[in-house]
């Protein structure tokens, strides 16, 4: 692929903070504040990024340090993660790496705790803050020692494990080098140091413990619930409360972290999200099992490049910019970026999760760019969409004014139709119109479509109102042909573009063309057409239901001799439903419609 096929955009000027705050996502994540020189000022975590970051700018602060920091902020970056726990862990990683000036906590060399299953004969299980590459298994990290201690208490209550650090080699045990300690006599250990417990039995316990620290402790929770109930029955409420707290910790336990994983070390992760004109490539840098950087670039397409081509160019650009030396990268599909780099396309597990996280950040970045564009330059956004629709739908002019028709009836009863209007890609509800079908007998969608299209544009012509650039009919070839027939009768064939959309596979049909057009499911053009179709359907169904309900009510009341339209309206206005009219007493009816008509209504529903 030749360089220069697409442009890589970097903001020449930082987007104003007010706009950045408006477009932040309502998701958990980590935010980073930068000064005018691009130097990081502060790293923080949030359950809801938009609310947390906005709070810095919406109120005065008691702390002078925070006031000074807020005045220096010129740019905000963020990384979206899956949970509040992951945000806490990612915040810890970034603070330790970048040592931001205004962060006071977490700058020391302490890390969050792990549970270690030691790589040795008769493995020990213990908490640690240090990860040593000796083949041991590490689970976590945990955001509090309370969770670690609860899990270890559960493990110790279920299994007897050794706590000594002896080398329990088979030869040393056979020679009787060790003697059982106090833990054995207390019943906390079965004495593998004197061969009182076999290695097979011990390893079976370790396998069960692996399931517990992975979060598979359904049986243990059931046991705890039973113990809590037993204590409560015996009026031992303090013991019951202690077990209840353990249950709460276990039920909220998160065994896996996306942002910190010792199995994923020193790799670069890339993903891409694209639309008709741009590609957005996200980069996550993982060092020593933890995410330490996230960055997204916007790439403008020039020659209709594929996602593969864009991603390859983005990988080369980003790795050069950040001087990455990682020899392995994770990507969503195969790419060609040189023989020296190992390419991994994860299908499941932890590696797939980290690629999904990268894709999520790319998607949020794209959404934020769109939001910012709408705020800063709404006309540019509309112009881009209109130009894209013109190209996608092969139109001669941009469809600034679109009208969509839909029929609604149930087995031919109360047939109606609806017309909804979009101007510049947005609904113009004041221009919506609804139609009662006048000339068609029975359930005939084709004839109904021809009638309403003819009536709509005959009126616009008579009143010298502007015509749309595009007409959409909800249905396939039959409805489209009916619409075309109506336009021909009015002399508008060829003057207004008309297409039909079929629901099953979202096919778009054109007059005189039997082969439908299929748009990309991610296309903004298709989304606007679907929105039009759905809005026409909603509007038509609502009209149809109201008409059917009204006719059902009116027909029964108006069929009573001596009761007219005005009386029916007064009754329904007062009693709200036919059921309440039927149940009303003569005394309740009389003040509303007078004694004479009240007697007629009352006697109709109370013949006795």
TrEMBL record:
Coiled coil: none annotated. GO terms for cellular component: cytoplasm; excinuclease repair complex. SMART domains: GIYc. Keywords: Cytoplasm, DNA damage, DNA excision, DNA repair, Excision nuclease, SOS response. It is found in: Cytoplasm. It holds the Pfam family UvrC_RNaseH_dom. Interacts with UvrB in an incision complex. This is UvrABC system protein C. It comes from Gillisia mitskevichiae. The gene is uvrC.
